[in-house]
């Protein structure tokens, strides 16, 4: 489900996410998971990657976990104009997958009774937003707060490839991102509907800092990354360079690819700045879904679904969808030059993480859907 909230072809809309949907709450649904799933076909998985790289991406990598077995594959080139292969262990910008990490820290703090999910955001950030809006509503995108990346001011700034390049080294503070929403009315009464908003997670990161006294990146590192072992994941802040093996990302200026690998990701902040690897994301979502990061009460809250009217629904920082009758949990992400998605079954036994650098005449989405269908086949 890469980029369902944005325009795939331009690459400019990767941060301009805005979605609408329904308002009903559902418990997590494990009943849709078949008794068993068929082992993924390695050759079929590789063919999808090759087809994707041939027409819709300059680079793609994927990692599939199947009951302890691991398949890794890649296709394309790490940099256009070269023959350098795409490293299967390469690092990439993960976009909105960042939200799952932020939500996990907030839920851990709730489990420690250091905050309550029903706390008004103004309890922690006085004057920040409407005092009817709760932390739970921020987590589940039911706050009604305008998405800062969908405001006219933001779209004017980032409306072309040339403007993105001109601003690639600009450092944004969380307050400057929130300032894009100043004077914007709520889209609906808090809690009455659903609308994806990056603003929610910029606010949640500030709440984490207020509660702990630490930047949210430090809490993610301390509570999640160190706990899960050696990793290639980081919250880069102002750092514009991706260290280690990685594929380049591009934006289209007509038919010309413009390299956007190097840019300051503070423009997305806690809503989408994460850099990670396929192995790390599989490890993280496997731990999260099997209850190794949260207490039971918060695990239940994590998996309580809000219907969205889309082909995915939303828990707390967690998307859910059904493929071949199998319920999957995870998130997708889209940021300049990169798209990623990570999905796992509720028991953590089958997982897929994919990252790609969109480039070409075709839409990557059908290929990603085919990859999902191949990785998660019911027997």
TrEMBL record:
GO terms for molecular function: carboxypeptidase activity. Gene3D superfamilies: DD-peptidase/beta-lactamase superfamily. Keywords: Carboxypeptidase, Hydrolase, Protease, Signal. Residues 1-25 form the signal peptide. It comes from the Bacteria. Residues 47-354 form the Beta-lactamase-related domain. It holds the Pfam family Beta-lactamase. This is D-alanyl-D-alanine carboxypeptidase. The lineage of its organism: Bacteria, Bacillati, Actinomycetota, Actinomycetes, Propionibacteriales.
